[in-house]
Amino acid sequence: MRPELLAPAGGPEALTAAVQCGADAVYLGCGDFNARRSAKNFTPEELASAVEYCHLRGVRVYLTLNTLLTDRELPAAASLAAYASEVGVDALLVQDWGVLRAVRAAAPDLPLHASTQMSIHNLDGAKVARDLGLTRVVLAREMDREEIAAVCALEGLETEVFVHGAHCMSYSGQCAMSALIGGRSGNRGRCAQPCRLPCAAGGGTKYALSLKDLSLAEHVPELMALGVTSLKLEGRMKRPEYVAVVTGVYARLLQEGRGPTRAEREALTAAFSRSGFTDGYFTGQTGPVMFGVRDNDAGEPRDLFAAARAFYETGEHRRVAVSFSLTVRRDAPAQLNVRDGAGRCAAVSGPVPENARTRALTAEDAAARLAKTGGTVYEAAAVEASVDEGLSLSAAALNGLRRSALDALTAKRTALPRRTTRPYLPAQADRAGRPAAPRYTVSVAEAGQVTAELLGQVPARLYVPLEEIEKLPCSAREQTEVCAVLPRVWKERRRDALRRMLEALPKQGVALAAVSNLGHLALAEGCGLTLCGDLGLNLFNSEALCFWRDKGLCSAAASFELRCQQLRDLQNFLPLETVVYGRLPLMLTENFPGGTAGAKTLTDRTGAAFPLLPLFDGCWEIENAKTLFLLDKAEELNALGLDFLRLRFTTESPASCAALLRAAREGTAAVPAEGTYTRGLFYRGVE
Question: Which of 320, 368, 311, 431 is nearest to 57 (CA)?
Fold first, then answer.
């Protein structure tokens, strides 16, 4: 079956452009609860009209509800989901685990898709998503052709793959750069795109975080052969003319099962590109060639856009093929049946024909009259007419029959589904049982930061990367609870190795593992480990805590994008911790900044230096230039009712790690020099 072409609709005009230029489905936002809050988006009334417009033309509509939401925002999001279900939206895209739970309660019949913000990047994640009842996963852009093929082969799950548009440097859902630097969260739909600003890493480019735009136009036949369900075009922030051009090209490629012509390549480049395009992740050819910036001198392709606008604004290009069947019998009302390609039928009756006084109606005359469907979305693919001899039926009567039949068919094509909706009732938990004062936990980047001096301070828990566990001193397991931190990203080729490492943990005296991705549940299953939630889960509300409690987690780390009041709102579904010291992770990337490995820091246009932390299997984490410091806010932290406060050590020396933990426990931590630390988002939060 040919894949669906899924186009962006940042507003009503872009929706028209996408539909008229060949999209099989569109995705759009309504209000503020979506990953492109700065797009025009749709009002509730416009959403209902958009669904009717699309369904009449056989186009599906997916609503994006794919951002992190607070406890106070969840009721409005659940109401929006219920409304979307009632007006016939075909599916909802979600990122937030709490939103997933709330939507399931409010609109249980509405199909749900896992947004790319869920960071599903391998077969394990896809399997768990399917088992949760999600009907489709939007796969991470970083997956190569073999990894995509493996998920496509999974039964009972649809796959959606980005094939064109802007390319993020970070894994979607794992970027906090915009939030921490500018207070505008990409996880909340307000990314300020700091990655497009000048910065350098060692011998890398001046724009070391700016990837070229993605284009898999050359690979459309291969994607079809892989069995991808949906080819997705990025661009809800782009103008309608851009949507029209790109949608039109890909619609032709899919229809004809081919790669682009030279003229089509030029059209895609002219519409928008950053130094050309890249297919590096899909082909496995990463490195410097993937990086590029927008040419500031690149003007608007006026002729291309004018032609695109003239096309989608003029006439109806999404005609619906129908078949008519007319029966005209003596002494009986005329009968007209109409059927569309999906098998929907409508039947209407007309006047009783009269005896012909001059020229009798013929089957050919009747068919010619019924075929005139101009002014509607319909076109007559076939017309059958059976007419008794010697009868007359006026042109007005035939036109009325056709009009009535098509109106009845339209009603069926745009009929609202029968779905259940329910009032959303937030989950309630008993806040009793919180400790009088939280205990300190420690996470390290490498085992060498764990010394006898640090262990002597007896942290409540010690988080260590899974691949570093074997290097820990034996005393660590005896003096504290050691937790193996699973890599946030892992490729299928490393799955067996990771599994062996997990199975070995109980023999090494480690019973706890920190998970940060949906796929970790499948990866760790049956290993005899207790699981806790780490920062990569982006836990933003109480419903999310309830979701992960039900999945068996013993504790959780709250998102560091929450401000203090929002942390205090979180209910006692799980023992909870937050980071109070350390460099916070800005990005998780598959590609070394600038494409040239070797540098240890990334320097931006202000001279700020962001450490680059190597991770499992060649991934990189970009750390904040300033260290989060809240150790002098013990009274405020204690008032939050948290169980744990985490010290996150990345670039610190072993001696500094031990000294900082001691100072934190004793309440003697000295505030660093002005300008060298940050309060993070603890007070200001994010938009």
Answer: 320
